[in-house]
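Hi, here's the filled form for the chain we discussed.

Project: internal
Contact: R.S.
Residues: 273
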Amino acid sequence: MKYIVLIIFVFVVSCVTDDFNNMADGFSPISPRQAAGMALDQHNPDKRRKGITLLANSPFGGAPDYLALYRDYIEADMDPLVKAAAINALARFGDSNDATLISPWLNYSESESAQVRRAAAYALQRLHNSSVVIALLRSLRNPNEENQVRYASAIALGQYPQPQVFNGLIEGLQNNDLSINLASAESLHVLTAQVFGTDWDAWYDWSESTVRAGDSLFAHQSVYEYPTYQHVDRWWDSVIFWEHRIHERPDSPAGLKEKTTKSTYDDDVDDSQ
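And the returned structure, exactly as it came back:
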């Protein structure tokens, strides 16, 4: 019994210590110069990862020098967590050309790190380039790939009105994972404005009749916007006031925004405590 009490005591002390450490960081936040120094630390991959993450979540993280750093780490850094952090950063500040830099890391045979492939799949939701469609379809169809990567790939495909994408998403409806089914159905809805849910037979029948009538499957396509995490404020957020949160809203991907109507959301990121 005394060992159980000791374990509980150690756990509680550890949690309290972590909270006080977080609070101390909030009172003396890392400066931009310190974050950049951490991102450049070639001897400590954990510092590089943290530095890149801090830069990516700052309003100045899209500076040209930082963009060059993210791209270099994606191509050359050997640590998968650093590479994933760089992919996340470039997804926020990069352009459509960066999609071609990121897409090879989605290839199941190119990387042993599922975290890198997850980062690549989510990044391609934010960067529009039709040359990455094959990579996304390959990821969605790969039965050996983890479901989270396939789910993110299905969401990313919702920005490409192509017959091969339509067919690939119908295959996604037939997957045995519900999250992939729902992501595929949502992308099909964005591409076509039709509402058949996860009923792949209904989608197939509709597509056949539409093509026979000489109409386009994508005549009523709606604006694609990448999803973002939406934090719901709770009462304890005012207690842990040292925690800084960045609230992003869905938006059109870089490369697609210029081709579509303006998003119904504001372009600015809401930085709030």
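Let me know if anything looks off before we file it.
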